[in-house]
Amino acid sequence: MGHAHASGDNYINFAPGIKSWLTSLDHKRIGLMYMIAVMTFFALGGTMAILIRLQLFSPGAHLFSGPDYNKVMTYHGAIMVFFVIIPGIPAFLGNFFLPLHIGAKDVAFPRLNLMSWYVFMIGATLGLTTLFYGGVDTGWTFYTPYSIRTGTAVVSMVLAAFIMGMSSVLTGLNFIVTVHKLRAPGMTMGRMPLFVWAIYSTAILQVLATPVLAITLLLIAAERLIGIGIFDPNLGGDPVLFQHFFWFYSHPAVYIMILPAMGIISEVIVAFSRKTIFGYTAIAYSSLGIAAVSFFVWGHHMFVTGQSEVAGLVFSFITMLVGVPTAIKMFNWLATMYRGSIQFQSPMLYAMGFLFLFAIGGVTGIMLASVGLDVHFHDTYFVVAHFHYVMVGGSLMALMAGIYYWFPKMFGKMYNETTARISFVFTFIGFNVTFFPQFVLGAMGMPRRYADYLPPFESLNKISTVGSWLIATGFLISLYTIIRGLQSGAKAPANPWGAKTLEWTVASPPIHSNFDIDPIVTAGPYEYR
Amino acid sequence: MHEFVSTKEGLWLFMVTEILMFGGLFVGYFLYHGRYHEAFAEGSSHLDWRLGGTNTAVLIISSWTMALSIHYIQKGLNNKATMCLITTVMCGFIFLCIKYVEYSAKFHHGLLPGKFFSFEEAADPHMPLFFGFYFFMTGLHGLHVIIGMSLITWVMIRNIRGDFDPHYFTAVEGVGLFWHIVDLVWIFLFPLLYLVG
């Protein structure tokens, strides 16, 4: 067991001043720097979302012209995908807690870790500057041939995404080596917390999938600048080839977005059920299994591109297979809660919200995996609702659960539980009000990415827009809760939740080098009773 | 030792990403080679396999001198190691010179990528596509050659300064690994681009 450093030293007061933070090699400080960046970008991407919903409140395209709407919609997607969700959990909570979970002082390559942050910020800055010279209007997916022809700042944005991808690769590489080489004595792979398994599986995806996106983005830039011809039909190229290349990365990418979230859910459900996880091995291997299978399903984004029927059926079948390890996790989490001693504090509320919302998102994903259904749903709001259920209802809710769960450990203070619960209510209800109607709209045939729509879709769009205001309120209340907690929260004990993983054995906040004495691990991560 | 083992694993992982990145280009090349076989054969016939072959030999030799430099450091013969590193950089330089000769010949004949293609006697309308691949793949590879040469120069300076001994030479191994991958990519590029005609 580690003990609190007698004099109250911790990683926050270790060396004061902005310069010491910006040059820090401490994984905890780097994690917080990512947190601030990601939260800022989330506010920007969220503002874009509010603008989209304002535009779609009534038919008639009042707020934005068509071309301008295309830009707003592109930035919403690009910011949320590249600037928020992909780095979000791994680079923030992963950085902070991976070393603590395995009993290490830091990651394998601390200098590379800091460099990853700077690379990320450089890419993000480049991407955001495009707002000032023409914007981008291709959608975050940059489909050809439009992305080759449009006069907007595509080259800068793809280069920005390339640079941010480099950051993702370096972080993933760092985490893989950390898990392999820096585990404390006695911490076998089978004794690691499930959050570590999740981050590890994600890191494998980051390292293997991102390079393919990298070359795809470079090819778009080269296509625009020198006209290689690879994707341009006028030069003999194949625009559908772009989709193959793009989705070969971007499908694994969505598992980069959800696997860490599932890791958080494992931790929170165990801690707030006061019971060991049901099926540790199944959950651990399902993370690896999801990562592996994710490479073989990319064609389910392309059922209507004219690819062969055989290809469509194969992709459809394998996509449905991915539902199996995913469902195993869901059932295991429920089994963990069964006969547990459930505590309903806000981290657990968000985790339970995840279970409900991700179930809907996952099941509608299986619906989309069916070729026949997808022909009807492709490019409609049904797809939009599906991925928001898994990415927001899934990843974002899990991120909130993780922030509230680990807030006392990171900052040494407790937040106000009441306002946190209120934030959950607004976010959860608001989310459903926003996105459930979109399933119906999609089934009715409303196309996605359109600046306007036909009058029969109006009432459901109005409900959806009101929902977006509720979500915004929920996140603003969360922001308020976090800031008030930082300013004047009660002092947090080392282990306010009675959890069992290694980070709860050290003081809140931890000292600079994490552990006073190197831990020696003799048991699994969730030994309750 | 711990740091050494970790660093080696990290560098191998990075090399996997480089192979995957170039791999995407190879996949694209294979697809279009199958689709526009005549265009690719004709395009390739404009490449001089003797220059490409020389470049292949040059890089293979440079991989050998790179490995030799590590061998010498392991034996404590740092001065010989420096000579080998210098030779490696020189080989890289020769490679780039030959590429310069090839590129200027292409520019002179109008055999340029995509929208800049102006070679009048092109029999096949899809030849620009071949040259798009040629310039992008060899260009990206050439960029990695330049990066590799810079890295080799860096470890050479560190070696001269006395940073390395038989117990510690991690950076040299890492740079060597990078250089071998650069060589390996070219070994695949050469037959694909030069020998399909």
User: Largest contact between protein chains?
Assistant: A-B, 35 and 35 residues
Relative helix content of chain A? 55-70%
Overall outline of chain A: globular
* Percent range for β-strand residues of chain B: under 5%
Radius of gyration of chain A, taken over Cα atoms and rounded to an integer in Å? 23 Å
Overall tally of domains of chain B: 1
CATH superfamily caption of chain A: Cytochrome c oxidase-like, subunit I domain
Ends apart, CA distance between termini of chain A: 18 Å
The portion of residues forming beta strands of chain A comes to under 5%
Mean pLDDT of chain B: 93
CATH architecture of chain B: Up-down Bundle
Number of strands of chain A: 0
Structural class, judged by helices and strands of chain A? mainly alpha
Architecture (CATH level 2) name of chain A: Up-down Bundle
Task: Characterize this entry briefly.
The complex is a heterodimer of chains A (529) and B (197). By secondary structure, chain A is mainly α.
Any overview of this molecule?
The complex is a heterodimer of chains A (about 525) and B (about 200). Chain A has one domain (about 25-505): Cytochrome c oxidase-like, subunit I domain (Cytochrome C Oxidase, Chain A). Chain A has helices at about 20, 25-55, 65-100, 110-130, 145-150, 155-180, 195-225, 240-275, 280-295, 310-335, 345-370, 370-375, 380-410, 415-445, 460-490. With about 525 residues, chain A is mainly α. In chain A, helix 7 (about 195-225) runs parallel beside helix 9 (about 280-295) and helix 13 (about 380-410) packs antiparallel against helix 14 (about 415-445). Chain A is globular and about 70 Å long. Chain A starts with 17 loop residues before the first helix and ends in a 41-residue tail after the last helix. Chain B has helices at about 1-35, 35-45, 50-75, 80-110, 125-160, 170-195. Chain B is about 80% helix and about 0% strand. The termini of chain B are far apart. Chain B is built from 6 helices and no strands. Chain B has one domain: Cytochrome c oxidase, subunit III, four-helix bundle (Four Helix Bundle (Hemerythrin (Met), subunit A), Up-down Bundle).
